[in-house]
Amino acid sequence: MPLAFSDFPNTRVVLDCTEIRIQKSSKLKAQRQTFSAYKHFNTFKALVGVTPDGYICFVPELWGGHVSDTEIVQKSNLLDHLQPGDGVMVDKGFRLDTIFPPTIKVYIPPFKMGSQLSAGDVIATRKIAGARIHVERVIRRIKEFHFLDRPVPITMLDIASKIFRTCAFLCNLQQPIISVKDN
Predict the structure, then answer these.
(1) Global pTM value
(2) DSSP string of 42-69?
(3) For the chain, which domains are there?
(4) How many CA atoms are closer than 13 Å to the CA of 128, on its beta-carbon side?
(5) What is the DSSP letter of 14?
(6) In this entry, which stretches build a coiled coil (predicted)?
(7) 8 A C-beta contact, residue 23 and residue 151
(8) pLDDT tens-digit readout, 92-110
């Protein structure tokens, strides 16, 4: 287990979502389903699960950009792959405490109560951020594939999930994100 996870030894997966731009549909319903209020254009949203060692282990179907991170996790079959005692690390965009059973530990940065975080919450936030940086690096690596650096054409939307998944799992064949000295 990498050093960054020493305070989170039961972490099974680190989750994050990313968005890939798609061509705008001429159909209003499709536009609504794929419009991302965060990105301000039409997107597909991808959930990416990464092991503490930096390997991609979970990539479900893509979703329209309007769907929340929490909803994607809820509709994916991630829970089927977790066992009691496992830990899941996420960022503040995920509200998983309501959808996971109490036997699954959710590591999420503390939320600010009042004007500022307590000293303990600042330390907890730094530790989680230090561990979560690896999933962000993995997602950046996925997006380096040329197909994903421009809007996905309308004609390819039906196979976009397969293409994204292929790009993601090809990253596992590249140089590891976590170096030996990080372990």
Answers:
(1) 0.90
(2) EEEEEEEEE-TTS-EEE----EETTS-H
(3) 3-182 (3.30.420.10)
(4) 22
(5) E
(6) none
(7) yes
(8) 878 777 888 899 999 988 7
